[in-house]
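ARCHIVE CARD
Drawer: 12
Card no.: 0347
Subject: one protein chain, sequence and derived structure
Cross-reference: see card 0346
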Amino acid sequence: MISPIRISISEAGRLFGLSTKTIRQAIKLGEINYVVVRGRYKLNFSSVLEWSQASTRRRNNFNKMGLGQYAEKWRITNRKYSPRPPE
């Protein structure tokens, strides 16, 4: 069984380009899965990712201020090692 990746509220805010207030509101509304470890929220990364992509505003923040801004730089250009099919 694969263990889920868990992140803190502040880490989620930085990774997704959102405020911690927005993340806390989603937790309060039950939109993000989490567990409490030693009195601190630990969010399920995949749950936060799905939630962030469900709204255009959150998706744009992710692409402009979060991890999404680096996605283009991660593209593999060497065809020998590229997992993408030939174009």
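Annotation on reverse: Residues 25 and 77 are 40 Å apart (CA to CA). Helices lie at 9-16, 20-28, 45-53, 56-65.
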